[in-house]
Amino acid sequence: MSSLGELVRHRGPFASVYLDASHDTEDAAEAMELRWRGVREELAGQGADDATLDVMQEAVLTPVPGKPGRALVAARGRLLLDRVLPRPPAVETTRWSDRPHLLPLATWTEPAVPHVVVMVDRAGADLHGYDGRGERAGEVPGDGHPPHEVPRGGWSHRRLRKAAEDTAGRDAARLAAEVDRLVTDLDARLLVLGGEVGARADVREELSPRCRDVLIEVGGASPAEGADDAAFDHAVRSLVAQYQSDLDNDVVEEFTAEAGDPHGRAVQGLAPVVEALREAKVAALLLSDPALGDRTVWSGDDPAQLALREQDLRGLGVEHVGERRADEALGTAAAVTGAQVVFTDAAGLREGVGALLRH
After folding, report:
1. Of 16, 56, 243, 292, most Cβ neighbours within 10 A?
2. Helices 28-46 & 50-60, crossing angle to 10 degrees?
3. Which InterPro entries does the protein's record reference (predicted)?
């Protein structure tokens, strides 16, 4: 959520939309236009301005192949977020409000785990890095050629291919050095190495201990032109998703252990969680009810200024306060304070909400 901190500081009100963006049939474009027409009418009925609706419409009607979902947030005629979701949301959301609705992103977006992917054979190599904030970065130096930036887009969306005479893949030591640099720069949690067995072994031997600590090898893939990457793509996505799931489980287990200690770092229930968010003490926000029962809280101009009661905020010297939906206010507070968001049914949370504190 911390990557959205800048977004929530824009002036609202905000239009937040989560919808099915499937484009896999002959009449998909027409179906999308009809779906958007209904969304636009609903937002307009809630008070959304034409400039904001127009910029969202331009984005929505630009098709994304396959059966994805789409998350969009806009305000004052500016598109602030346009994110493709790995699948359509179970429930479509259309909301015009003082705060953007961000909590669904914690469940519907792909895991934000920094990782590096390498595919290698005797003829060449492909190198890809993902920094965990939605931006991809990496370089493959070639003999006598300037570094080549990895294009934006995930591994399965677009691959970086270098010709054999212009690649570090023929020199395992040089390729390993570049992998080491990228793993370090991105603080990668995973290094996925695929390709030919012999070529993988050569690169593995040259990797630093830091890289070997996060290394996972996947067979059955090749960087050769025309190679089918589907199985390798699936393996990479599965590894990243499992890593994120393990992290989330660790948070839940730590929360459960701390909740059993009266002096521990776990609180639950809306009142103590709101207080902890206001004081920027929350390392992880745990939720079992995404809608938070349609409860409300009070907040100020700064999204981190939260309280259950209006007088509590005014007592802290906050002049401009308003009543907000809790599912919006807690999500934006998590974003500006850098708190992780974890959805779980395992913790038995009081009022459906808890927090693991930083200290």
Report:
1. 16
2. 160
3. Bact_RF_family2 (IPR040701), eFR1_2_sf (IPR042226)
Rounded distance between C-alpha atoms, residue 101 and residue 93, angstroms: 9
Q: Which structural domain range is residue 161 located in?
A: 115-244
229 inside domain: yes
Q: Round to whole Å and give the CA distance between 161 and 168.
A: 11
Q: What is the CA radius of gyration of the chain?
A: 23
**Of 313, 293, 280, which Cα lies nearest the Cα of 353?**
293
Instruction: Measure the CA–CA gap between 277 and 47, rounded to whole angstroms.
Output: 30
At 180, list the tokens.
């080491």
Greater pLDDT, 102 or 168: 102
The model's pLDDT over 173-196, given as tens digits with 9 standing for 90+, comes to: 889 999 999 999 989 999 999 988
The dihedral sign for the CA sequence 259, 260, 265, 267: positive
- Residue 229 has which token pair? 């990457």
CA distance 21 to 193: 32
Clarify whether residues 129 and 231 are in a common domain: yes
Q: Into how many domains does the chain fold?
A: 3
- Cα gap 220→266, rounded to integer Å: 45
């098709």: which residue's tokens? 63
Ramachandran angles phi, psi of 65, nearest 5°: -60, 155
Please state the length of the chain. 359
Give the residue-averaged pLDDT of 218-239.
Answer: 72
| DSSP secondary structure string for all residues of 321-333 | -EEEEHHHHHHHH
Residue 224 is predicted with a pLDDT of 56
CATH of the domain at 210: 3.30.420.60
Eight-class DSSP state of 150: P
Nearest to 120 by CA among 157, 183, 171: 171
Q: How confident is the model at residue 26 (pLDDT cuts 50, 70, 90)?
A: confident
Q: Measure the CA–CA gap between 140 and 169, rounded to whole angstroms.
A: 9
**Cβ partners under 8 Å of residue 240, min gap 6:** 110, 111, 113, 115, 190
